[in-house]
């Protein structure tokens, strides 16, 4: 194979990115280098490579200037990353004794993040790496001076089975979806509605910029009999857009009919393969708003719902509206000190009013504050990292919601259940 000679006579090589979707979004977790020859474990180490990266705008190619949501401080998104581990690997990045591929494991850090934006808009960016080999291979001078700076693809194992569609119809919503393997009978359908930050024109943002993909994991799918469709419509603006205000308190939306049409078309195209008694809806923040909107507008359609930090203002909900949905199982999740959506104006009074109206299967997990529950993220004192208090979806996507408002366990069939386990037990009341 003829190698291209780049700057300074260095030989330019190729690499691939492996992306991992974590609590704080998708990150480059590993680089797979296409080595110019076979390498052994003893020939490469964490000190073998210099790893430089620039986070660039996909359209302009310019290096991004990031602005902190908390402090407002700006920073140029380029610099060096440290290798956590280096070893020969196969095409999927799994360790081998000898290979012509080499994996570099990277820490979860800002320079490796695959998206850029804030609570109102996110986009995928280009993580452009330049990896330099710092020594010879096998003590052979001709096997030196290699630079890996041509990206030839991205792998994200968590998105296996995910697809997306962009309908030709002008008003039709774009969407992503998970298709289980070998669907031969009617199985449940889970509709997930993204937050304000995942709207726009790239469906992958709607399902791939946070842990929505966990719904397709075996751990979640088992709650639904082992297989369930997952549909993630994407809103061009925000679900709360009522045609006058994009983020108002009217509780109206111009997207009610388009999102319902998206759902209906999805089911129609899979006639006989969707269990109409097990259609579920959930969403976070702005998507929590649309979850509630759909329940009120189509009270006989859904089997259950999980509105997360929802933005549906209770003072605009009539008693008649509540009466129409009191038969639907609903599990709310919210944090008391939510910085963006006050629960005392939205989910909390709605929950109490539903209970007062006679709703039997309604639950509320209420967090006093948000902190990491995985044990992975620690502060300088070894304590769990405190999070953005609006980010309740982190616990939802990790299936870490278990409690009622009073702190007791939520029960289904007399047994304690998590939020997704509970959802899988629900069937439409007919």
Brief summary:
The protein is an alpha/beta fold. The chain contains eight helices and 23 strands.
Tell me what you see in this structure.
With 430 residues, the protein is α/β, with parallel strands linked by helices. The protein folds into 2 domains: 4-155, Immunoglobulin-like, CATH 2.60.40; 160-425, Alpha/Beta hydrolase fold, catalytic domain (Rossmann fold). The protein contains 8 helices and 23 strands. Strands 1, 2, 3, 4, 7, 8, 9, 12 and 13 form a 9-stranded mixed β-sheet that branches. Strands 14-15-17-16-18-19-20-21 form an 8-stranded mixed β-sheet, with helices on both faces. The longest helix is centred in the middle third of the chain and has 13 residues, at 256-268.
CATH superfamily of the largest domain: Alpha/Beta hydrolase fold, catalytic domain
Largest sheet: 9 strands, mixed
User: What would you say the CATH architecture of the largest domain is?
Assistant: 3-Layer(aba) Sandwich
Total discrete domains: 2
Number of distinct beta strands: 23
Helix vs. strand class: alpha/beta
The oligomeric status of these chains comes to single chain
Give the integer mean of the pLDDT values: 93
Strand content: 25-35%
The portion of residues assigned to helices is 10-25%
Give the helix tally: 8
Alpha carbon gap, first and last residue: 66 Å
């Amino acid at each position: 194979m003829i190698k291209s000679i780049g700057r300074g006579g260095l030989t330019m090589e190729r690499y691939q990115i492996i992306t991992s979707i974590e609590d704080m979004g998708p990150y480059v977790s590993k680089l797979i280098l296409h080595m110019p020859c076979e390498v052994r474990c003893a020939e490469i180490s964490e000190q073998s490579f210099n790893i430089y990266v620039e986070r660039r705008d996909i359209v302009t190619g310019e290096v991004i200037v990031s602005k902190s949501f908390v402090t407002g401080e700006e920073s140029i998104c380029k610099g060096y990353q440290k290798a956590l581990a280096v070893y020969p690997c196969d095409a999927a990045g799994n360790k081998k004794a000898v290979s012509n591929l080499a994996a570099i494991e990277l820490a979860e850090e800002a320079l490796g993040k695959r998206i850029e934006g804030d609570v109102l808009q996110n986009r995928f960016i280009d993580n452009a790496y330049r990896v330099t080999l710092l020594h010879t291979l096998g003590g052979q001078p001709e096997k030196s001076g290699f630079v890996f700076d041509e990206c030839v693809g991205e792998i994200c194992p968590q998105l296996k089975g995910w697809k997306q569609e962009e309908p030709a119809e002008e008003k039709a919503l774009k969407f992503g979806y998970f298709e289980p393997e070998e669907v031969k009978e009617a199985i449940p359908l889970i509709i997930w509605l993204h937050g304000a930050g995942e709207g726009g024109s790239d469906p992958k943002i709607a399902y791939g910029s946070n842990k929505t993909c966990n719904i397709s994991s075996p751990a979640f799918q088992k709650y639904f009999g082992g297989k369930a469709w997952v549909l993630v419509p994407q809103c061009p603006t925000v679900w709360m857009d009522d045609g006058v205000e994009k983020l108002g308190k009217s509780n109206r939306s111009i997207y009610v009919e388009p999102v319902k049409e998206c759902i209906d078309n999805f089911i129609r195209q899979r006639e006989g393969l969707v269990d109409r008694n097990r259609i579920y809806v959930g969403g976070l923040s702005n998507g929590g708003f649309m979850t509630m909107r759909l329940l009120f507008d189509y009270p006989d359609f859904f089997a259950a719902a999980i509105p997360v930090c929802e933005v549906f203002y209770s003072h605009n909900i009539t008693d008649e509206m509540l009466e129409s949905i009191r038969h639907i199982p609903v599990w709310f999740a919210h944090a008391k000190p939510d910085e963006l959506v006050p629960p005392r104006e939205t989910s909390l009074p709605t929950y109490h009013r539903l209970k007062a109206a006679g709703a039997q299967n309604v639950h509320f997990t209420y967090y006093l504050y948000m902190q990491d529950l995985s044990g992975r993220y620690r502060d300088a004192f070894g304590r769990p990292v405190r999070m953005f208090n609006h980010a309740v979806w982190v616990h939802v996507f990790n299936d870490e919601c278990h409690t009622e408002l009073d702190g007791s366990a939520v029960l289904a069939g007399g047994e304690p259940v998590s939020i997704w386990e509970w959802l899988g037990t629900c069937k439409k009341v007919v």
